[in-house]
Design a protein that fits this description.
92% of the residues lie in helices and 0% in strands. By secondary structure, the chain is an all-alpha fold. Helix 1 packs antiparallel against helix 2.
């Protein structure tokens, strides 16, 4: 498997982790809201509220582990991106990029002049 393919799969894994984090965070918020509502119901037993809060705590622990995994993964991916940028910077010559930019600006100028001349006719 090529190195690029490995990094693309790594990036996909990071995206999957962040998607999971988003979904679990929404669940966490709903569990907290549910526990709050349960607490405000007069007929609710203390044990039910404690059980609801226990579920919130368990999901909070899972979220902490997931955030830690994402932190570690993104550090590695960021290092890959920095390394790739340095390699590209070393391979590209500024003079060639300047020439390309100048040519693009020249062509844009020609288009503008041509458009102005056709409007006058």
């Amino acid at each position: 498997m090529s190195h690029r393919k490995i990094i693309e799969e790594y990036y996909c894994d990071i995206n999957n982790l962040t998607d999971l984090l988003s979904k679990l965070t929404n669940c966490y918020r709903l569990l907290i809201g549910g526990a709050g509502e349960l607490n405000s119901i007069a007929s609710a037993h203390k044990k039910e509220v404690k059980d609801a809060l226990h579920r919130v705590d368990e999901l909070g622990d899972i979220l902490d582990k997931l955030i830690s995994a994402i932190d570690k993964s993104t550090v590695e991916y960021a290092q890959y991106c920095k390394m790739r940028t340095e390699i590209i910077r070393g391979k590209m010559k500024a003079q060639y990029m300047e020439t390309e930019i100048d040519e693009e600006l020249f062509l844009n100028n020609l288009d503008t002049i041509y458009d102005d001349n056709t409007k006058e006719e």
